[in-house]
Amino acid sequence: MSPWFKKFVTIIFAGNMKTLLFVVFLFFSAIASAQQVKSVKVTDLENTIKESKTPLIVNFWATFCVPCLEEIPYFQEITGQYKAKNVSLVFVSLDMKEAYPVKVNEMAKRLKLIYPVVWLNETNADYFCPKIDTSWTGGMPSSLFVNNATGYHKFFEEPLSKEQLQKEIESMIKPN
User: The domain containing residue 25 runs over which residues?
Assistant: First the structure.
């Protein structure tokens, strides 16, 4: 420890190393839990989907979409129940450019998202929607369920209930 830092620590914490360690732990915990939302193009997302070696759920949402925000907590909860089956979940924000990164990051933090969150940096829905699923008209929330190992691919352009989500995950992880 450098002499100036040691002096700083001594002054601030009056020599209480336990307090210092606790503050450092809290600082790094806060950093670890506050993920930054990355900007991606639809081609990046396509590659993620095609190259996924585990069952994958891609949930499309936006900060202004109330049904999206309502289903996100149980998407995390239920997907977490399938950790042993290696089910992955990615949240894809479809917010406008004005909302990225500040508003999207704030919402991800508020929702305590533990799964990866990306912002789709695309403006032409006629271009990106059919790349995800040919039936998608751009509605939200929408969810894609993919299991490349079994050829499973199912898309929903509607909110899903807890029961529907659980049923869909079960279908996705079922062997051929």
Answer: 3-33
